[in-house]
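Dear H.,

Thanks for agreeing to be a second pair of eyes. The structure we're designing against is below in token form, covering all 321 positions.
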């Protein structure tokens, strides 16, 4: 076993579940934290024995004492902070959104600050939503340090967190990496505006109809690739308060539907998408991230959709879907 000890917040979420799986595969020590006790997504990715072996702690991300006690008790060296509310929840309830996404992240940084000799790095989920639309930028592809132009409360909260992380480095020397996932898909993605891509793959397998809530181009990344980037960045624990764009593959939702129909010919005509276009920037550069963790090739949508379909099929055959 490694000497690293990871605290993963938001561990019952989609990315959290893939990060936990990755860390367990790497034989790293993990403490999983979430307000939700139901391992709905983890149970899709892990065998029952693996699931039982996870050290799981329930709590609210804003409980500074509890987070601090956890860091002490388990001698945590790396925090991967993924607990948060997504765009629709932040739109409907901006105050709760700010409390969880902004204050909750500050809570993690405060706890780390008080144990700065122990905690090597705070990894946190920012979002591609800190950027504006492609058309709002003159220089393409859009770099990590391009001006932030969030178009939603959610994006504004994530932008605030990136700035707070900068101050924690400047004033307290806390190392951090904020990753900006694009639209994430894969088994376990079942919440949020853009979860429709994953839900469409599942619907196609089950012979059902599905409408994806948006259309047009999107930067989509397979959940396992996203988890790989989080764990790799954490292990690097670079100096500074870094923020990195992430890039999967950019294609239109209509093209994605074409791929899904190739995988499931019987789904032809049953998977549709809305006209509404996702306004997040798609033409981003992930050169900074590739430089930090070494060159990697993100899966194409075809490859990721195939893996998602295969995993859903296995779960269905095992009666676990
Ligand atoms: N999924 C995407 O496409 C995407 C894209 C960009 C950024 N992100 C960010 O990545 C992170 C993880 O995303 P996800 O897709 O796994 O989201 P998710 O909604 O699946 O998981 C979030 C988890 O946070 C937990 N949580 C919420 N409030 C909490 C609180 N007060 N205390 C403790 N836990 C709490 C939830 O129970 C949930 O398990 C989030 O911060 C999200 O904003 C996600």
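And this is the sequence the design step returned. I haven't edited it by hand at all.
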């Amino acid at each position: 076993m490694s000497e690293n000890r990871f605290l993963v917040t938001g561990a019952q979420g989609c990315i959290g579940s893939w990060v936990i799986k990755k860390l367990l595969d790497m034989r790293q020590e993990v403490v999983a934290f979430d307000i939700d006790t139901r391992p709905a997504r983890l149970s899709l990715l892990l065998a029952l024995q693996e699931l039982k072996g996870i050290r799981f702690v329930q709590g609210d991300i804003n409980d500074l004492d509890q987070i601090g006690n956890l860091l002490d008790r388990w001698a945590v060296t790396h925090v991967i902070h993924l607990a948060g509310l997504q765009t629709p929840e932040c739109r409907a309830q901006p105050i709760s959104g700010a409390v969880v996404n902004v204050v909750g992240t500050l809570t993690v940084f405060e706890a780390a600050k008080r144990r700065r000799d122990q905690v090597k790095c705070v990894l946190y989920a920012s979002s591609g939503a800190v950027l504006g639309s492609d058309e709002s930028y003159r220089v393409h592809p859009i770099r990590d340090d391009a001006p932030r132009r969030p178009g939603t409360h959610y994006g504004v909260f994530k932008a605030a967190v990136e700035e707070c992380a900068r101050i924690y480095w400047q004033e307290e020397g806390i190392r951090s990496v904020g990753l900006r996932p694009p639209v994430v898909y894969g088994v376990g993605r079942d919440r949020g505006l853009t979860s429709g891509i994953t839900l469409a793959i599942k619907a196609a397998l089950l012979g059902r109809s599905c409408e994806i809530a948006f259309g047009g181009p999107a930067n989509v990344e397979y959940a396992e690739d996203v988890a790989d980037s989080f764990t790799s960045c954490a292990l690097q624990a670079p100096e500074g308060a870094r923020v990195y764009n992430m890039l999967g593959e950019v294609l239109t939702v209509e093209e994605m539907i074409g791929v899904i129909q190739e995988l499931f010919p019987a789904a032809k005509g049953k998977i549709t998408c809305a006209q509404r276009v996702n306004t997040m920037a798609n033409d981003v550069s992930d050169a900074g991230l590739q430089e930090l963790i070494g060159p990697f090739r993100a899966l194409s949508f075809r490859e990721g959709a195939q893996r998602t379909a295969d995993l859903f099929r296995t779960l269905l055959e095992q009666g676990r879907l």
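Two observations from my side: Residues 10, 12-16, 34-36, 60-61, 82-86, 100, 104, 125, 127, 181, 183-184, 191-192, 194 surround nicotinamide-adenine-dinucleotide (CB under 6 Å). The longest helix spans residues 94-113.

Warmly,
E.
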